[in-house]
């Protein structure tokens, strides 16, 4: 296994292989198998290319960039250098040394159409399984021709487009490892991902904002050799087969620490998580799953992409979850399944009242990522005219969904039940002792798709995992007699802002860098739509800063917008625990 990762003990690996959970199959081979079984079925419907909406004029000609190449300047490096000096346009023409080797996309295999359904000028692309499979081979060869090798890390920060999907399957085929960033991340996060993983390439949307971001990241990092805005393609080449037991990708953990943690996932266990979700949700070839949340999260990747492809269904990608964007797509594409965070579900329920779009193809919506209140849960089925299922999960592994046969009284009050019979859960007290059945405690998880450690984090792993390999989720739960999990809160220092996870310590560190901040603590306050919002509690040094100033300060430090505090409370001191630590519990009570 990749250096810096914690393998499963052999006895567990053996058990998971023997039970058939771990197959001798890479993620690239999973797609190949589907293409062989039913090549002409629709696999993917998504905005084409690599821009959010309409391709900007000239975008085709400027689509491939190699930022730096180790050991010597290329034409495109000069481009970056020049641009960095002048601070003007950062794009360079394709056809650089590296780019010249990669063939350009021909577009022959696909049909495009103007986004009639959405009323924007988004160009949509449809790929069958055979087309997607062939494209992934071409992308793997194109990446290889650029000099990206098996084991190399590639930070992927793309919006929900066909480019996203073809890129990651190209990477899986090549055995290069995507590091999944989110479109909202900015230089602070991206620089860290690049440095920490030693990434040699960074893939961005072909948009000015991301060109500027890439320029900043290039200035701060040492390992990046390529910044790509176009997914390179070349004639398929014979490439060595990646080891299915080795790491295939890195997911970002919701996190509780000062710097984000990365979760290494292997081909075989991550593929299994998608297969197990497909089985739990009874997906089949008629499934049309819409992903409108950012695809780089574990949830849409497993429940959307992997489960749908495993079942031979159709994956539809939208650029965002707003009803304006998604309702016409549901109607136009006959979407049957989708996953939503509670805040978006509320928005959809309100918009559905207008009755402007036919949503009758929807069979079920799945709500998860943050706690769905029992009250809202009751309103979902009548408002959206389809079944409700809840889901919980984590980038580290364990996930649970309801089953089609679960009765409404269970679906309304619990968040799901683990997808694998081999998932192990313990609910424990502060001393790691099992609590009596039905009582609240911290959830510990172990199983065939729950990792045994974060990437290159031995010290943190010693706390985040028990000695016998259970992951400490930081979630407070209780189990129903049926085994369903009910989320009751958390012990981790994290804020769940409408499904976006914020590690309090990370934001506090940024706040503390401000000259007028002596002490900082970030806490969550209840919010009707998002579930929680963030509130920065600050003890000032000298004149107290105002929220807009602090927000601008954090933006200036390259912090993703969702992490910027929603509220600011200025205090003279912080309440302490008996041990003399800042009491977040007391602070939360003070500001709520
Ligand atoms: C309360 N809290 C929840 C829920 C996740 C499926 C679904 C979600 C994720 C995900 C995922 C919750 N109610 N229904 O990866 O495969 C909180 C918990 C958890 C954390 C993990 C999947 N569903 N949560 O949200 O890595 O606190 O994964 O530990 O983003 O989200 O966040 P993340």
Automatic annotation (TrEMBL):
Domain AMP-dependent synthetase/ligase: 123-455
Region annotated Disordered, chain positions: 33-123
Pfam families assigned: AMP-binding (PF00501), AMP-binding_C (PF13193)
InterPro entries: AMP-bd_C, AMP-bd_C_sf, AMP-binding_CS, AMP-dep_synth/lig_dom, ATP-dep_AMP-bd_enzyme
Every AMP-binding enzyme C-terminal domain range: 506-581
Compositional bias annotation for Basic and acidic residues: 81-114
Stated name of the protein: (2,3-dihydroxybenzoyl)adenylate synthase
PANTHER family in UniProt: LONG-CHAIN-FATTY-ACID--COA LIGASE (PTHR43767), NONRIBOSOMAL PEPTIDE SYNTHASE PES1 (EUROFUNG)-RELATED (PTHR43767:SF1)
